[in-house]
Design goal:
The complex is a heterodimer. Chain A is an alpha/beta fold. Chain A is built from 8 helices and 10 strands. In chain A, helix 3 crosses helix 4. By secondary structure, chain B is an alpha/beta fold. The chains are: A alpha/beta, B alpha/beta.
């Protein structure tokens, strides 16, 4: 039943002399949320870039949907949300959604329904015809998530989706992610917020370009003999 | 399909940015208008002309023309010295029936003014001469008629005498004719440059291209930079869109904008400045469209080397300003050959040459194969570099 959607094995990546990723082993299965945590500069964004095929690994193998990366066509099945909102300010929410929808290859006939659906998910239906420049920070974040959800992708890759979002909205987004997971989709998410790491199915601790630990949050806490993922993180980092 | 979607989006963004749009369309008109005012003022500059051995009537005729004053010189040396000292702008020297004109030509508008004044004065004096000659011949005819009447009265008596008078009258007529019809030969000499040094005529096609190049370069470069810094480029590349679709989408949208801008600029110059376009306006638009696409490709390419809008601005003195210097606005003939060599890699040179040929000589596009070919070469090379360059952001 469990099938690896993202399968990274012994992944290595250098930028010039700098080794960013040394030995990354990471899998994301169907119907699973995998959290990627680690300090700034640990290589979280690089892992995501490799998984999207924007960067090519220097060593090891990277496969998504059983296809070796990089592969342009695969991107149509992946919903990606970057750290920045990446929206066109002078366009309305609807125009943003339609544009990215066309880029993803959604047929014109299905566009209206697709836009309507994702707008409902993130609760932006009433603001779709307003220009993004007039949106609040939270609304922009929601629109950005809506764009990632366009076209019902089987795999979602979210780079810090809840940065700068108020608690109520954060809870709402996590509820939506949980619902998507239950539909059988796979989600890879990076986060800085440690209590969010408690909400994922499996958490990967990234440190110095290596996956230090990769298991269910409960198992990790037990293994490290601590009460929270934050403590696991600190212990792994050797701060204590 | 995706290319069209990108084109639509870029155009939508552009048309909602009213200020930038105004800059693209109003700024060139404003500058052109300013120039037209400045150049009109220039054309009524006061010029002074030195004359050597020119008839009194011609002298006073030239002196009588507005903004033109005459100084008489006895020797050529004195006149030459005055010309060198910039006391006079031109010398008119009479050699028998012919005229030799020497222009300082440091200011082409002054040269044009002297030429105009001289030819006007010459026409007026020759018309005057003609008039007086006509008067003479009319008087002669009246005399002749009187004589004929007298002859008719004394017909029988003095038949041989009448024949002699009529021969005399005919001779007078003939001499009038000959002095009125011989046009004096005019030789023109230029101290600086040549007769083609019409500054504004030369400047216009280059200036037109410059506006197109400058604005498209800057705005497209900024647009792609913004796309990169806000993360939309990354996000765009996280969809199955082809890299070439992005580049072509940008080219299409800015191509449309450039066509509109060129039409506005061409119409402005034709109507506002009254510049005569000998060739077809469509050809001018085609050349400028090509130039705009080159500018666009240039802007996109260089935007990858800039990290902020300010760094993009830094390319203006480095990339845009030299374009003007090497575009042919300043004659390159007298420059060192290595400097001339630089001009071959300046796109504005080719568009300037081509548009100048269309505007002043009415050359058709078919005969501008070299210039068009060079612009196309620029375009293909830069576009390829851009498509390959996007690999930096996505490896497929």
């Amino acid at each position: 039943m469990k099938k690896a959607i993202i399968d990274l094995q012994h992944l290595a990546k250098n930028f010039g002399d700098q080794t960013v990723l040394k030995d990354i082993n990471l899998t994301v299965n169907t119907g699973e949320i995998v959290g990627l945590i680690g300090p700034s500069g640990a290589g979280k964004s690089t892992v995501i870039k490799v998984a999207l095929g924007m960067e090519v690994a220097d060593g090891g193998s990277a496969k998504v949907f059983d296809t070796a990366l990089p592969n342009r066509q695969l991107l149509g099945r992946i919903g990606y949300m970057a750290q920045t909102d990446a929206l066109y300010d002078s366009l309305s929410g609807r125009e943003n959604l339609k544009f990215y929808g066309l880029m993803k290859g959604i047929a014109k006939a299905d566009m209206e329904a697709a836009v309507q659906h994702v707008a409902e998910v993130v609760d932006l239906t009433d603001y779709l015809d307003k220009r993004v420049a007039g949106y609040s920070g939270g609304m922009m974040r929601r629109l950005s998530l809506a764009i990632a959800l366009l076209g019902d992708p089987d795999l979602l890759i979210l780079d810090e989706p809840t940065v700068g979002i108020d608690p109520a909205l954060r809870r709402q987004i996590w509820a939506e992610l949980g619902r998507l997971r239950d539909e059988g989709r796979s989600i890879l998410i990076t986060t800085h917020v440690m209590d969010e790491a408690e909400l994922v199915d499996r958490v990967a601790l990234l440190l110095d370009g290596k996956v230090m630990a990769f298991d269910e949050p409960g198992v990790l806490k037990y293994e490290y003999g601590v009460n929270s993922i934050e403590d696991v993180f600190l212990k792994a980092e050797g701060v204590e | 399909m995706r290319t069209i979607a990108i084109m639509n989006r870029v155009l939508k963004e552009l048309f909602r940015d009213k200020r930038t749009l105004a800059l693209m369309f109003v700024a060139p008109i404003l500058v052109m208008l300013l120039m037209s005012v400045i150049f009109n003022t220039n054309s009524s500059t006061d010029v002074s002309v030195g004359t050597i051995g020119v008839t009194k009537s011609l002298n006073s005729e030239i002196d009588g023309i507005k903004h033109v004053s005459v100084k008489k010189y006895d020797t050529k040396t004195a006149a030459n010295k005055a010309l060198k000292d910039e006391k006079i702008d031109a010398i008119i020297k009479k050699n028998g029936n012919n005229y030799h004109l020497i222009y300082a030509n440091t200011d082409s508008t002054k040269t044009a003014a002297v030429k105009m004044a001289f030819s006007n004065a010459l026409t007026t004096t020759s018309v005057n001469k003609l008039k007086s000659a006509l008067k003479k011949s009319t008087t002669a005819t009246v005399k002749l008629q009187a004589q004929i009447q007298a002859i008719q009265k004394q017909q029988a008596a003095a038949s041989t005498k009448g024949a002699a008078t009529s021969t005399k009258a005919t001779a007078t007529n003939q001499s009038t004719k000959s002095s009125g019809q011989t046009t004096p030969k005019i030789t023109n000499t230029y101290v600086y440059g040549d007769k083609n040094t019409g500054y504004f005529a030369k400047m216009l096609p280059i200036l037109m291209g410059f506006f197109v190049f400058f604005f498209v370069f800057l705005i497209s470069g900024m647009a792609l930079l913004k796309e990169r810094t806000t993360g939309t480029l990354d996000r765009l590349l996280a969809t199955p869109v082809k890299r070439s679709s992005i580049v072509f989408g940008y080219m299409l949208s800015y191509g449309i904008l450039a066509v509109m801008q060129t039409i506005v600029i061409v119409l402005t110059t034709v109507w506002l400045l009254g510049i005569e376009v000998v060739g077809s306006m469509a050809s001018v638009v085609v050349i400028n469209l090509l130039l705009a696409l080159v500018a666009l490709a240039f802007g996109i390419l260089l935007s990858t080397f800039a990290n902020s809008e300010f760094q993009m601005m830094q390319f203006i003195p480095l990339v845009v300003v030299p374009q003007i210097f090497f575009s042919g606005l300043i004659p390159l003939d007298s420059m060192a050959s290595w400097i001339k060599g630089i001009s071959y890699i300046i796109p504005l040179k080719y568009s300037g040459d081509a548009v100048a040929a269309i505007i002043t000589r009415g050359t058709s596009l078919m005969d501008l194969g070299f210039d068009i070919g060079m612009l196309l070469l620029f375009l293909v090379v830069l576009t390829t570099l851009n498509i390959v360059g996007l690999r930096r952001y996505r490896k497929v």
